[in-house]
Amino acid sequence: MTHRFNRSPHSPALFQDTPTRSVDVGGTAFVYREVGPRTGVPVILLNHLGAQLDNFDPRIVDGLAATRWVIAFDNRGIGASGGKTPSSIAEMARDAVAFIRALGFEEVDLFGFSLGGFVAQEIVLTEPRLVRKLILAGTGPAGGQGIDKVTPLTIVDMIKGALTLRDPKYYLFFTRTPNGRRAAKAFLQRLTERQVDRDKPVSLSAFGAQLKAIKAYGLQAPQDLSTIRIPTLVANGDQDRMVPSGNTHDLARRIPRAQLVIYADAGHGGVFQNHADFAPKALAFLDA
């Protein structure tokens, strides 16, 4: 369907240059950025723990936006979006659906990474008619192996990051091999490419609410993923420490006809490390 806002059909060519916009979602301002041609079914990006608009990998976003309308946003209480961050995945999913509807969309594609993948599954299970295609990266199912252990793992690597003056994602998202270390440096460098109109950091209270939601999700009963009937692409590295890679294989087994992509010598950020391979694969999947 057509977007109800009157905007230019041509966006800036790169994610780093596109302006930050805002939409009223039931009285709360949600911020977002969009890039790519303003036609067809948009791809909505759902981000990871502690992440705001500046944490979306520009190579993935721009890769998809070569032919697709791509929208990244801050959910409630994250970055510059208003409101208080909920402490359950179900509430985060309801907020994301409200954001999508506030933009006037009746059908979208979803790309959920890590925490965003939990939210994406919840959206598909509760609002199946809203989603046309689903991409799940670095993520797992409710009750998945090790998901309830994300908090201690994250805190240890945050301390390690502080002691070594590195971003914790250097340790959390990538392997410790020469290949993984190179990929980590390149990824963190890409996140600094946007020079103006940077987003607000994620607050400690929002981070805590997200951790609480992740732990509860890791401890809840498994959901029936066999009801997901839309095309699904599942991807990860083979060495994910945050959401152990076994969860990715589990998702691919439990979602009917899901396609699986596993990258060797790659961790939680496997799709970022292998963006040159993954972005075209994701586009081909969305366009098929």
From TrEMBL:
Gene Ontology MF: a single term: hydrolase activity
Family annotation (Pfam families): Abhydrolase_1
Key words, A-Z: Hydrolase
Database matches in InterPro entries: AB_hydrolase, AB_hydrolase_1, AB_hydrolase_fold
Source organism, top-level taxon: Bacteria
Domain AB hydrolase-1: 42-273
Gene3D superfamilies: alpha/beta hydrolase
Protein name per the record: Alpha/beta fold hydrolase
